[in-house]
Every structure is written in C-alpha cells, then in structure tokens.
Hints:
This protein has helices at residues 6-14, 61-67, 72-76, 118-146, 178-192, 216-223, 249-276, and strands at residues 2-4, 19-23, 28-32, 38-42, 81-85, 105-106, 109-110, 149-157, 169-172, 205-207, 228-236, 240-241, 246-247. By secondary structure, it is of the alpha/beta class. The strands form three sheets. Strands 1-2-3-5-4-8-11-9-10 form a nine-stranded mixed β-sheet, sandwiched between helices. Strand 1, helix 1 and strand 2 form a beta-alpha-beta unit. The two termini are 34 Å apart. InterPro entries: N-FG_amidohydro (IPR007709). It comes from Dokdonia ponticola.
Amino acid sequence: MLRLSTQEMIAKIGNEEPFHAVSEDYSFTLKIEEYTYFLCGAVHDGHQFRKELWKNCLHTAYDRWYEEDPCTKQMIQSNPMVIAGMDSRFEYDLNRAPEMAIYEDAWGKKLWRTPLSEDQVQKSLDKHTRFYQVVHALISKMEEKFGSGIVYDMHSYNWKRWDRPVPVINLGTKNIDNDRFFAFAKAWCDSLKTIKLPHDIETTAGINDTFHGNGYFLKYITENTKNTLVLATEFSKIYCDEYDYILYPEVVNAIEQQLKLILRNHATTFYNDFILKNDLLPD
C-alpha cells in the first residue's frame, strides 16, 4: 500500500492508474484494482481519534465504537474499487456536510469538556475536504468512462436500541432519483435477503424502515453527478454484541463472502439495464 497526497491520488485517477493507498494524513484508504462502474464506500468504518482530543472528550472509546460502523470496510473489501474512512466520526463525520461535521454533542450527550479551538476544528475539516476532493475525482472518472455509475454506501446500525422489530438490512432511498432508479434499489434489497447468516439469523431487509438515506456521502455524489446511483445500505449490528463490545468474525466473513457475488451481480445488472439500455457509454 502506498501513502499518497490528495493531489497524487487525483493525478493517478486522472491517468486511470490502479493503486492501493492510504492518504498522506492517514485519514482514509482507497483501493482501485481496475476502473469500473461501481464503487464501494465505508465512510464510518474508522475508529482513529486524534490524540490531542482524548482528554477533552467526554465519550469513552466504547461510546465511540458503539456509534461507528466497525467492519463495514471488511464487508466490501473484495471489490475492485473501495474507499473507506479511518478516522472516527466523533472527530469529524464524513457523512455530514462540513458545517455539521464536527459534533458538539452526540446522541444526547455532550462531547467536549471545553469547546474545540479553531485550529483543532480546522485540522479535522481539512481532512473532510481532502476526502471529498478524491471522491469527486473518482466519481467524475466513473461517469467519464461509463456515463454512469453505482455506489454501494455501507453502514451499520444498533438494532437493540429500537423498541420494535427492525430489518437486518435497511436500504435508504429518500434522496435518490426514484423515477429512474427505484427498480435497482428494490432489486438490491431483494438480493440482500438471500444472504445466509450463521447461528440461524434470519436475513430480513427493508426500504426506508429505520433510516432513509439522508447522509452527505449519498447527497454529495447525487448532487455532483448526472447519472450515478448511491445505495445507502445499513446492516444491523447482528455481526457483533453492541453492548458487550464483541465482534463476531464468522458473521462478518459470511457477509463479505456473499456480498462479493451479490454486489457484482447487481452492479452488472445496473450496467446492462441502465448504462447500456440508455446508451450512456461515451463514444
């Protein structure tokens, strides 16, 4: 794996060079084995938390882990294009707009003992900016090559906090162009239901049941492209014990191995039934 600056990553994307790199500031990773029409993202996978912020933070490492999306990068790591955050959303949230990316409180609990300095805030916002500069270059390249693309935006959520039955997988579609893309969203939801999980966990899936796809990653890509579909996909944390801070690697592995096939098949259908049928490939 290389360590590259934002400008170096963007240059390689412009030249269509395959690479696997960590950003110069160690805030995110990007793997491109080949330039294709589908991208996988895990913006909340990270748990890193800048050391200068530790003493000022009122939330424990467990508090942060509980609200992060551990293992979401692993679930999609077998795919040819994968971008993933390394920093905790408690430092800055890549799934929020810049003006909202730095939390003052989180899930009803004050986050900082004393307000962050302007310098501390800017350090985090600069990382947010660099991430989206690379995202913009990557999505632009996808549309340049294929006229369209599909992004699998992977998240997780704490199912035990709900006071009603919730699906193992939720797909948020509120902010996509449903006139053009709902059939592909429904097909994705239906294909996810076929995942077989250990321990007799029944794989249920729903659309806009728990979350509606309001994240900035989805909105940014949708607003800055013409034909790219983003599918905000949330796995409930059936792959860990969210209260006891324990991961179940056999469940994570089962998801990864099956997503490898399901995701590529779905992306291929999108290519055939949207990109080719609408004659979007550049001449």
